[in-house]
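Posting for a labmate who doesn't have an account.
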Amino acid sequence: MSVVEGYIQARNLAACLDLLAGVGETELDGGVLAAFETGLKGTSPDRDRWTVHALGRLTAEAARVNIGAGLIAFRVEAPHGYTRAVSAVLRACGEYFLEAQAAPAEAGPPQPGTDA
């Protein structure tokens, strides 16, 4: 196992967790997202207080850097072979504004008579 560390923008938390869940070969559900959001209260990387949750094959730890900075520190433990993908996700979540989007209810070919 390897540990990948990085900082993300707090506004990207849901999108970042969704991407990390995909890398970890699982799906992010509302319960895990709520657990992360609630667990961030009182965390601090300086005091080594983290909220820790499993995301499939990954274990993600998160802590608020400070409220005014709008940053969240992440440490993600990943199996070998997953670290580059985790690094890319953390970099994107730190440098860009990402929007969390729900997947369509049913994916499939367009139906006759629709504009899709």
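Reply:
Got it, the structure tokens are right above this. The longest strand covers residues 2-9.
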